[in-house]
């Protein structure tokens, strides 16, 4: 399951990923959101919050090169979650996002405000961290 976080603003977008990430989550929610940001701003800064994540089933979504094209414009990624899940997610992210100039940084659950501040650097807007969590 994937949810857009309230603090998303400008070219800075955050998602909470929980349970199982499906093709629909990825192709129907995540990628269209990134495409919209790319069309409007060019580059994208992304925060991924992992909460109770159990894995992914992304067989079709990852095989579509046109769908994956929006990922090459991601320039900064903050992954927030417990260490083992954050490391796994950052490996997945590295496989598909951006080029050599994409920065990826891991943050613990307790560092969510720091993660929003870091991912906001160089973005079109500054995220207000008091509202960093929550669904939209």
UniProtKB/TrEMBL annotation:
Protein name: STAS/SEC14 domain-containing protein
InterPro entries: SpoIIAA-like, SpoIIAA-like_sf, STAS_dom_sf
């Amino acid at each position: 399951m994937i949810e857009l976080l309230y603090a998303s603003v400008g070219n800075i977008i955050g998602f909470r990923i929980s349970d199982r990430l499906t093709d629909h989550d990825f192709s129907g929610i995540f990628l269209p959101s990134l495409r919209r940001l790319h069309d409007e701003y060019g580059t994208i800064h992304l925060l991924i919050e992992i909460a109770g994540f159990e894995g992914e089933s992304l067989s079709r979504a990852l095989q579509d090169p046109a769908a994956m094209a929006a990922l090459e414009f991601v320039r900064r990624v903050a992954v927030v979650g417990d260490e083992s899940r954050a490391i796994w997610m950052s490996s997945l992210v590295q496989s598909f996002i951006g080029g050599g100039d994409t920065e990826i940084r891991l943050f613990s659950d307790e560092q969510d405000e720091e993660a929003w501040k870091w991912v906001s650097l160089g973005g079109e807007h500054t995220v207000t961290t008091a509202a960093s969590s929550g669904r939209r």
